[in-house]
UniProtKB/TrEMBL annotation:
InterPro entries: Ald_DH/histidinol_DH, Ald_DH_C, Ald_DH_CS_CYS, Ald_DH_CS_GLU, Ald_DH_N, Aldehyde_DH_dom, Aldehyde_DH_Superfamily, Succ_semiAld_DH. PANTHER family: SUCCINATE-SEMIALDEHYDE DEHYDROGENASE, MITOCHONDRIAL (PTHR43353). Residues 21-481 form the Aldehyde dehydrogenase domain. GO terms for cellular component: cytosol. Belongs to the aldehyde dehydrogenase family. Keywords: Oxidoreductase. It comes from the Bacteria. Pfam families: Aldedh. The active site is at E257. This is Succinate-semialdehyde dehydrogenase/glutarate-semialdehyde dehydrogenase. It comes from Cocleimonas flava. SUPFAM superfamilies: ALDH-like. The keyword ATP-binding does not apply.
Length: 487
């Protein structure tokens, strides 16, 4: 194996069920490859329906004592887990970069970002307050308590293999739930390493279970089980819709963090240097593979040429390569299929009249997983890049004339996750923030994610919020108790 770790015991290839590291029942494995080199780095147990059902039963059993622990005790254990994650930040970042590809500096950032959710929810665990409500009659009293929803299924993607899982497991455990997790088959090593540290922190056997492998079987077992009371998912809108359908048979609560089509609007009165800086981080972070990445850059006609020139200059400084090499700012895309998808979007735009200002030859898609950062100008709404999530380092730049036109273009999508705009006008800041149909708005800011804020979308970008003071609600049920005969 090619991952150099200070603590090699963090590298696990078995499933984690009821505190045991186990092979799959049929001994099958899936191969994990480094997208930078194509090299196989590990073979991980490929589990299916029976292992999932077993994990669900253990999780149910383990939850009985976990939820009874005083909130402060759960909080202390979560705090310990946070500390262990940060103590092992470098090893976790190495694992992440080798299996996912992102530059090592970004991987370190992701580990800290995920750990912040664990720290945050360790604190929030102690603040699950109820209510007393004025009753309709003098002899009655009404009290509301909040209780853990039950065993939670977490399904997470490959683009943030550490942080997406941390931000689901942490609130679930803080609320008193247990979890059965299915990380993406491309990137399970980061998830399994988190489990090693959870165990060391004292999280009891069965409270966290992690398995991957036979995706459809696992998905069906998780969604059809009456024991699982909630599914939290981050991934594509298509799979999210399928999972919502599957959850209908047992009426599960869902949190869905799905696709985006983020507009990034630059008004004539923007600080252009600030806007370019914001566009670079928002568009090219993780090689453009985030659901909050700027997807459509909309620039007002008065500053269009100036913005394009400045962005092209900034893009020239980005270097593409193996994420482990210092100085690399854009790693590989996750698979060759991802390369082909991104390339076909660029080709479609160019064939319909767009101009490729930066980027490599469009005649043939790259043979490996590296894609040169691209900028497209003269882009129009009939091109696929206007409607589809690009998930790659390609910036299509559209031109608009008026504020109303920009807002209409921005809202002309079934998605509603993140959006961004740049202006120095205070009235416009409020007007446009309120008019944009999105769950999150970055104003003169290209990076909006943090554990203190509610992350989530509207429309087909999903439901529920992760992080913030609202983030625990998704893992709690409200129970109302009516006491009578008290006169
Ligand atoms: N909103 C976001 O953050 C993300 C959006 N995407 C978008 O989706 C596109 C495709 O990416 P992709 O990786 O295929 O995303 P998916 O939505 O397919 O994968 C996300 C997670 O869902 C799992 N999954 C897939 N199908 C099922 C199923 N039937 N039952 C249960 N679990 C399932 C995957 O498992 P497995 O890995 O085994 O397939 C993975 O763990 C991207 O190009 C991007 O546009 C992708 C990732 C994240
Ligand atoms: O792309 C995603 O899956 C969402 C994570 C991005 C973030 O938290 O900023």
């Amino acid at each position: 194996m090619s991952i150099q770790l200070q603590d090699p015991s963090l590298l696990k290839t078995q499933a984690y069920i009821n505190g045991q590291w186990v092979e799959s029942d049929d001994n099958e494995t899936i191969q994990i490859t480094n997208p930078s080199t194509g090299e196989m780095i590990a073979e991980v147990a490929s589990c299916g329906e029976t292992e999932t059902n077993r994990a669900i039963e253990f999780a149910e059993e383990a939850m009985q004592s976990w939820k009874q622990k005083p909130a402060k005790e759960r909080a202390n254990i979560l705090r310990k887990w946070f500390e262990l994650v940060m103590e092992n930040q470098e090893d976790l970042a190495q694992i992440l970069t080798v299996e996912q590809g992102k530059p090592i500096a970004e991987a370190r950032g992701e580990i800290a970002y995920g750990a912040n959710y664990i720290e945050w929810f360790a604190e929030e665990a102690k603040r699950v307050y109820g209510d007393t409500i004025p009753a309709p009659a003098g002899d009655k009293r009404i009290v509301c308590i909040k209780q853990p929803i039950g065993v939670v299924a977490c399904i997470t993607p490959w683009n943030f293999p550490n942080a997406m899982l941390a931000r689901k497991i942490a609130p679930a455990l803080a609320a008193g739930c247990s979890v059965v997790c299915k990380p993406a088959n491309e990137t399970p090593l980061s998830a399994l390493a988190l489990a090693v540290l959870a165990e060391r922190a004292g999280i009891p056997a069965g409270v966290i279970n992690i398995l991957c492998g036979k995706t459809i079987e696992i998905g069906k077992a998780l969604t059809q089980s009456p024991i699982i009371r909630k599914l939290t998912f981050t991934g594509s809108t298509a799979v999210g819709k399928l999972l919502i359908q599957q959850c209908a048979s047992t009426v599960k609560k869902t949190t869905m963090e799905l696709g985006g089509n983020a507009p990034f609007i630059v008004f004539d009165d923007a600080d252009i240097d600030q806007a370019v800086q914001g566009a670079i981080v928002s568009k090219y972070r993780n090689a453009g593979q985030t659901c909050v990445c700027a997807n459509r850059i909309l620039v007002q006609e008065g500053v269009y040429d100036q913005f394009v020139a400045a962005l092209a200059k900034a893009v020239e400084t980005l270097s593409v390569g193996d994420g482990l090499k210092e100085g690399v700012s854009i790693g590989p895309l996750i698979t060759k299929t991802a390369i082909d998808n991104v390339h076909s979007l660029v080709k479609d735009a160019v064939e319909k009249g767009a101009n490729l200002v930066a980027g490599s030859d469009i005649e043939t898609a790259p043979e490996d997983c590296f894609y040169q950062p691209a900028i497209l100008t003269d882009v129009s709404e009939d091109m696929r890049v206007f409607r589809e999530e690009i998930f790659g380092p390609v910036a299509p730049i559209f031109k608009f004339s008026t504020e109303d036109e920009a807002v209409a273009m921005a809202n002309d999508t079934e998605f509603g996750l993140a959006c961004y705009f740049y202006t120095q006008n205070l009235g416009r800041i409020w007007r446009v923030s309120e008019a944009l149909e999105y769950g999150m708005v970055g104003v003169n800011e290209g990076i909006i994610s943090n554990e203190m804020a509610p992350f989530g979308g509207v429309k087909e970008s999903g439901n529920g919020r992760e992080g913030s003071k609202y983030g625990l609600d998704d893992y709690l049920e409200i129970k109302y108790i009516c006491m009578g005969g008290l006169a």
